[in-house]
Amino acid sequence: MGLLRENFNRKFIATGEVSPPPCPDKTLFAHEVEEMKPLMGRILGVNVVDGPGGRVLMSSLGASIYMIQHGVEPILQQVVRDKNRVALQNDLLSAAIFGIENVLSIAGDHPACPASDNPKSKPVYDMDSTTLIVMLKKLNEGKLWNGKDTNYENKNLNAKTNFFIGASLSPTSSPLDGEIYKVKRKLIAGVDFFQTQGVFSIEPLTNFLNLYEKTIGEKISDKVLVGIVPIWSYGMFKYLLTLPGIVVGEKFLNEVNEARKKQKETGQKGLIEEAGVNLCVDLVDKIKSLGVKGVHIMPVGNLHAMKEIMDKAGL
Q1: CB 42 within 8 A of CB 310
Q2: I need a surface site. Which of 30, 210, 225, 243 has the fewest CB within 10 A?
Q3: pLDDT mean by block of 10 residues, the chain; 315 residues
Protein backbone atom coordinates (compact mmCIF):
# COMPACT_ATOMS: atom_id res chain seq x y z
CA MET A 1 0.00 0.00 0.00
CA GLY A 2 1.34 3.43 -0.96
CA LEU A 3 2.08 6.27 1.46
CA LEU A 4 -0.75 8.45 0.21
CA ARG A 5 -3.49 5.84 0.52
CA GLU A 6 -2.14 4.52 3.83
CA ASN A 7 -2.02 7.97 5.44
CA PHE A 8 -5.02 9.60 3.81
CA ASN A 9 -7.00 9.46 7.06
CA ARG A 10 -4.50 11.71 8.83
CA LYS A 11 -5.93 15.05 9.93
CA PHE A 12 -4.00 17.32 7.55
CA ILE A 13 -1.59 16.06 4.89
CA ALA A 14 0.62 17.42 2.12
CA THR A 15 1.66 16.35 -1.36
CA GLY A 16 4.32 17.89 -3.57
CA GLU A 17 5.16 18.22 -7.24
CA VAL A 18 8.09 17.96 -9.66
CA SER A 19 8.51 18.99 -13.28
CA PRO A 20 10.21 16.44 -15.57
CA PRO A 21 12.98 17.86 -17.77
CA PRO A 22 12.31 19.39 -21.20
CA CYS A 23 15.41 17.63 -22.59
CA PRO A 24 17.19 14.24 -22.53
CA ASP A 25 19.52 15.36 -19.70
CA LYS A 26 18.11 14.18 -16.35
CA THR A 27 20.77 15.85 -14.14
CA LEU A 28 18.56 18.57 -12.61
CA PHE A 29 15.57 16.25 -12.34
CA ALA A 30 17.66 13.58 -10.59
CA HIS A 31 18.89 16.22 -8.13
CA GLU A 32 15.30 17.32 -7.45
CA VAL A 33 14.26 13.71 -6.79
CA GLU A 34 17.17 13.27 -4.35
CA GLU A 35 16.06 16.42 -2.52
CA MET A 36 12.50 15.07 -2.32
CA LYS A 37 13.55 11.74 -0.86
CA PRO A 38 14.17 12.97 2.75
CA LEU A 39 10.77 14.66 2.70
CA MET A 40 8.82 11.45 2.10
CA GLY A 41 6.60 10.90 5.12
CA ARG A 42 6.01 14.62 5.54
CA ILE A 43 5.05 14.66 1.85
CA LEU A 44 2.89 11.64 1.02
CA GLY A 45 3.18 11.72 -2.75
CA VAL A 46 4.73 13.80 -5.50
CA ASN A 47 2.82 14.82 -8.61
CA VAL A 48 4.64 14.30 -11.88
CA VAL A 49 3.21 16.80 -14.33
CA ASP A 50 2.41 15.63 -17.87
CA GLY A 51 2.89 18.39 -20.42
CA PRO A 52 1.38 21.30 -18.44
CA GLY A 53 0.41 24.19 -20.67
CA GLY A 54 0.77 21.91 -23.70
CA ARG A 55 4.57 21.91 -23.35
CA VAL A 56 7.00 19.13 -24.29
CA LEU A 57 8.62 17.46 -21.27
CA MET A 58 9.76 13.99 -20.24
CA SER A 59 6.58 11.94 -19.86
CA SER A 60 4.90 11.60 -16.49
CA LEU A 61 5.15 7.81 -16.79
CA GLY A 62 8.89 7.81 -17.47
CA ALA A 63 9.56 10.27 -14.66
CA SER A 64 7.29 8.35 -12.26
CA ILE A 65 9.14 5.11 -12.92
CA TYR A 66 12.46 6.86 -12.24
CA MET A 67 11.08 8.33 -9.00
CA ILE A 68 9.66 5.12 -7.57
CA GLN A 69 12.96 3.38 -8.31
CA HIS A 70 14.76 6.11 -6.34
CA GLY A 71 12.60 6.13 -3.21
CA VAL A 72 10.05 8.85 -3.99
CA GLU A 73 6.34 7.98 -4.25
CA PRO A 74 4.94 9.46 -7.48
CA ILE A 75 1.45 10.61 -8.35
CA LEU A 76 1.25 9.77 -12.04
CA GLN A 77 -0.69 12.21 -14.19
CA GLN A 78 -2.71 10.82 -17.08
CA VAL A 79 -3.86 13.48 -19.53
CA VAL A 80 -6.71 12.66 -21.91
CA ARG A 81 -5.66 15.55 -24.17
CA ASP A 82 -2.82 13.49 -25.66
CA LYS A 83 -3.88 9.83 -25.68
CA ASN A 84 -6.66 7.59 -26.89
CA ARG A 85 -8.08 4.75 -24.79
CA VAL A 86 -5.51 2.26 -26.06
CA ALA A 87 -2.53 4.48 -25.18
CA LEU A 88 -4.03 5.32 -21.77
CA GLN A 89 -4.43 1.64 -20.89
CA ASN A 90 -0.93 0.86 -22.16
CA ASP A 91 0.52 3.50 -19.82
CA LEU A 92 -1.62 2.42 -16.88
CA LEU A 93 -0.65 -1.24 -17.20
CA SER A 94 3.00 -0.14 -17.44
CA ALA A 95 2.57 1.97 -14.29
CA ALA A 96 1.02 -0.95 -12.40
CA ILE A 97 3.89 -3.27 -13.37
CA PHE A 98 6.35 -0.81 -11.81
CA GLY A 99 4.33 -0.52 -8.59
CA ILE A 100 2.89 2.96 -9.24
CA GLU A 101 -0.47 3.28 -7.46
CA ASN A 102 -1.39 6.98 -7.35
CA VAL A 103 -2.92 8.28 -10.58
CA LEU A 104 -4.37 11.73 -11.24
CA SER A 105 -6.89 11.86 -14.08
CA ILE A 106 -6.95 15.24 -15.82
CA ALA A 107 -8.08 16.73 -19.11
CA GLY A 108 -4.88 18.74 -19.67
CA ASP A 109 -4.44 22.30 -20.88
CA HIS A 110 -5.45 22.73 -24.52
CA PRO A 111 -2.46 22.90 -26.92
CA ALA A 112 -3.62 26.32 -28.09
CA CYS A 113 -3.36 27.88 -24.61
CA PRO A 114 -0.87 30.79 -24.26
CA ALA A 115 1.70 28.68 -22.36
CA SER A 116 1.97 26.02 -25.09
CA ASP A 117 5.12 25.49 -27.13
CA ASN A 118 3.15 23.47 -29.71
CA PRO A 119 -0.02 25.50 -30.31
CA LYS A 120 -0.78 23.76 -33.63
CA SER A 121 -0.74 20.22 -32.22
CA LYS A 122 -4.05 18.36 -32.33
CA PRO A 123 -5.64 17.27 -29.03
CA VAL A 124 -7.05 13.74 -28.81
CA TYR A 125 -9.78 13.76 -26.11
CA ASP A 126 -10.91 10.23 -27.00
CA MET A 127 -12.50 10.26 -23.54
CA ASP A 128 -12.89 12.85 -20.83
CA SER A 129 -11.21 12.82 -17.42
CA THR A 130 -14.32 11.40 -15.71
CA THR A 131 -14.48 8.46 -18.13
CA LEU A 132 -10.79 7.84 -17.41
CA ILE A 133 -11.72 7.47 -13.72
CA VAL A 134 -14.22 4.78 -14.76
CA MET A 135 -11.41 3.09 -16.74
CA LEU A 136 -9.15 3.16 -13.67
CA LYS A 137 -11.88 1.58 -11.53
CA LYS A 138 -12.37 -1.14 -14.15
CA LEU A 139 -8.64 -1.90 -14.13
CA ASN A 140 -8.81 -2.18 -10.34
CA GLU A 141 -11.53 -4.80 -10.89
CA GLY A 142 -9.32 -6.65 -13.39
CA LYS A 143 -11.18 -5.45 -16.51
CA LEU A 144 -9.96 -3.67 -19.63
CA TRP A 145 -12.11 -0.99 -21.24
CA ASN A 146 -13.30 -3.49 -23.88
CA GLY A 147 -14.66 -5.76 -21.12
CA LYS A 148 -11.94 -8.41 -21.30
CA ASP A 149 -10.05 -9.50 -18.23
CA THR A 150 -6.70 -7.78 -17.83
CA ASN A 151 -5.16 -11.27 -17.69
CA TYR A 152 -7.14 -12.73 -20.60
CA GLU A 153 -3.94 -13.98 -22.27
CA ASN A 154 -3.02 -15.99 -19.16
CA LYS A 155 -5.79 -16.96 -16.78
CA ASN A 156 -3.30 -17.91 -14.05
CA LEU A 157 -2.20 -14.33 -13.39
CA ASN A 158 -3.59 -12.07 -10.66
CA ALA A 159 -3.96 -9.02 -12.86
CA LYS A 160 -5.99 -6.47 -10.92
CA THR A 161 -4.41 -3.04 -10.55
CA ASN A 162 -4.40 -1.14 -7.26
CA PHE A 163 -4.80 2.48 -8.27
CA PHE A 164 -5.55 5.25 -5.78
CA ILE A 165 -7.45 7.63 -8.02
CA GLY A 166 -7.26 11.40 -8.00
CA ALA A 167 -8.86 14.12 -10.09
CA SER A 168 -8.58 17.87 -10.53
CA LEU A 169 -10.90 20.50 -9.09
CA SER A 170 -11.00 24.12 -10.21
CA PRO A 171 -12.57 26.40 -7.56
CA THR A 172 -12.08 29.44 -9.83
CA SER A 173 -14.17 28.05 -12.71
CA SER A 174 -16.84 30.27 -14.16
CA PRO A 175 -19.68 29.49 -13.89
CA LEU A 176 -19.16 27.41 -10.74
CA ASP A 177 -22.29 25.31 -11.29
CA GLY A 178 -20.63 23.42 -14.12
CA GLU A 179 -17.59 22.56 -12.01
CA ILE A 180 -19.81 21.42 -9.13
CA TYR A 181 -21.59 18.87 -11.30
CA LYS A 182 -18.30 17.74 -12.86
CA VAL A 183 -16.93 17.07 -9.37
CA LYS A 184 -20.06 15.10 -8.44
CA ARG A 185 -19.72 13.03 -11.63
CA LYS A 186 -16.12 12.24 -10.68
CA LEU A 187 -17.23 11.13 -7.22
CA ILE A 188 -19.87 8.85 -8.72
CA ALA A 189 -17.22 7.47 -11.11
CA GLY A 190 -15.12 6.46 -8.10
CA VAL A 191 -12.49 9.10 -7.43
CA ASP A 192 -10.61 8.85 -4.11
CA PHE A 193 -9.25 12.40 -3.80
CA PHE A 194 -9.11 15.79 -5.49
CA GLN A 195 -6.28 18.25 -6.03
CA THR A 196 -7.19 21.82 -6.86
CA GLN A 197 -5.39 24.13 -9.22
CA GLY A 198 -3.17 26.68 -7.51
CA VAL A 199 -5.18 29.10 -5.38
CA PHE A 200 -3.90 32.47 -4.21
CA SER A 201 -6.67 33.49 -1.83
CA ILE A 202 -9.10 31.61 0.37
CA GLU A 203 -12.32 33.18 -0.97
CA PRO A 204 -12.75 31.16 -4.22
CA LEU A 205 -12.19 27.91 -2.34
CA THR A 206 -14.64 28.84 0.42
CA ASN A 207 -17.24 29.85 -2.17
CA PHE A 208 -16.84 26.58 -4.03
CA LEU A 209 -17.08 24.35 -0.95
CA ASN A 210 -20.14 26.20 0.36
CA LEU A 211 -21.90 26.17 -3.01
CA TYR A 212 -21.09 22.49 -3.54
CA GLU A 213 -22.61 21.57 -0.16
CA LYS A 214 -25.66 23.74 -0.81
CA THR A 215 -26.21 22.38 -4.34
CA ILE A 216 -25.40 18.68 -3.86
CA GLY A 217 -26.31 18.32 -0.18
CA GLU A 218 -23.02 16.77 0.92
CA LYS A 219 -19.57 17.90 2.00
CA ILE A 220 -16.53 17.23 -0.14
CA SER A 221 -13.82 18.96 1.90
CA ASP A 222 -12.43 15.73 3.39
CA LYS A 223 -11.31 14.61 -0.08
CA VAL A 224 -9.71 17.89 -1.21
CA LEU A 225 -6.02 18.80 -1.33
CA VAL A 226 -5.69 22.52 -2.00
CA GLY A 227 -3.02 23.61 -4.50
CA ILE A 228 -0.62 26.35 -3.38
CA VAL A 229 2.22 27.85 -5.43
CA PRO A 230 5.19 29.66 -3.85
CA ILE A 231 6.16 32.50 -6.19
CA TRP A 232 9.95 32.79 -6.37
CA SER A 233 10.58 35.03 -9.38
CA TYR A 234 8.68 37.58 -11.42
CA GLY A 235 9.23 35.56 -14.60
CA MET A 236 7.62 32.54 -12.96
CA PHE A 237 4.76 34.74 -11.78
CA LYS A 238 4.10 36.00 -15.32
CA TYR A 239 4.18 32.42 -16.67
CA LEU A 240 1.59 31.30 -14.12
CA LEU A 241 -0.75 34.02 -15.32
CA THR A 242 -0.74 32.42 -18.81
CA LEU A 243 -2.10 29.10 -17.49
CA PRO A 244 -5.83 28.36 -17.77
CA GLY A 245 -7.80 28.60 -14.51
CA ILE A 246 -5.19 30.59 -12.58
CA VAL A 247 -6.73 33.57 -10.76
CA VAL A 248 -4.44 35.69 -8.58
CA GLY A 249 -6.01 37.75 -5.81
CA GLU A 250 -5.24 41.44 -5.32
CA LYS A 251 -3.29 40.87 -2.09
CA PHE A 252 -1.01 38.30 -3.72
CA LEU A 253 -0.50 40.52 -6.77
CA ASN A 254 0.29 43.61 -4.69
CA GLU A 255 2.75 41.86 -2.38
CA VAL A 256 4.67 40.23 -5.22
CA ASN A 257 4.84 43.53 -7.09
CA GLU A 258 5.98 45.33 -3.93
CA ALA A 259 8.71 42.73 -3.35
CA ARG A 260 9.82 43.07 -6.97
CA LYS A 261 10.00 46.85 -6.64
CA LYS A 262 12.00 46.65 -3.40
CA GLN A 263 14.32 44.04 -4.90
CA LYS A 264 15.06 46.35 -7.84
CA GLU A 265 15.62 49.38 -5.63
CA THR A 266 17.88 47.72 -3.07
CA GLY A 267 19.56 45.04 -5.17
CA GLN A 268 18.73 42.57 -2.43
CA LYS A 269 17.99 39.11 -3.83
CA GLY A 270 15.31 36.68 -2.70
CA LEU A 271 12.65 39.19 -1.67
CA ILE A 272 10.09 37.85 -4.15
CA GLU A 273 10.72 34.30 -2.92
CA GLU A 274 10.39 35.43 0.70
CA ALA A 275 7.10 37.16 -0.06
CA GLY A 276 5.85 34.08 -1.94
CA VAL A 277 6.69 31.76 0.97
CA ASN A 278 5.06 34.03 3.57
CA LEU A 279 1.92 34.40 1.49
CA CYS A 280 1.67 30.60 1.19
CA VAL A 281 2.20 30.06 4.93
CA ASP A 282 -0.59 32.53 5.65
CA LEU A 283 -2.77 30.73 3.10
CA VAL A 284 -2.09 27.31 4.68
CA ASP A 285 -3.22 28.62 8.08
CA LYS A 286 -6.52 29.74 6.52
CA ILE A 287 -6.90 26.50 4.54
CA LYS A 288 -6.60 24.44 7.75
CA SER A 289 -9.72 26.13 9.11
CA LEU A 290 -11.84 24.83 6.19
CA GLY A 291 -11.67 21.17 7.15
CA VAL A 292 -10.05 20.10 3.89
CA LYS A 293 -7.78 17.06 3.66
CA GLY A 294 -4.58 19.07 3.17
CA VAL A 295 -2.46 21.00 0.70
CA HIS A 296 -0.75 20.21 -2.57
CA ILE A 297 2.45 22.28 -2.82
CA MET A 298 3.59 23.12 -6.37
CA PRO A 299 7.10 24.58 -6.01
CA VAL A 300 7.83 24.79 -9.77
CA GLY A 301 11.40 23.57 -9.23
CA ASN A 302 12.14 25.52 -6.03
CA LEU A 303 12.28 22.88 -3.30
CA HIS A 304 13.89 25.34 -0.90
CA ALA A 305 10.68 27.39 -0.93
CA MET A 306 8.58 24.26 -0.47
CA LYS A 307 10.63 23.17 2.55
CA GLU A 308 10.32 26.63 4.09
CA ILE A 309 6.56 26.55 3.73
CA MET A 310 6.41 23.11 5.34
CA ASP A 311 8.62 24.17 8.26
CA LYS A 312 6.84 27.46 8.90
CA ALA A 313 3.35 25.97 8.48
CA GLY A 314 4.13 22.93 10.63
CA LEU A 315 3.58 20.36 7.89
Answers
A1: yes
A2: 210
A3: 89 92 89 93 94 82 96 96 94 96 89 71 88 96 88 72 96 89 96 92 91 95 94 72 68 74 75 82 92 92 88 91
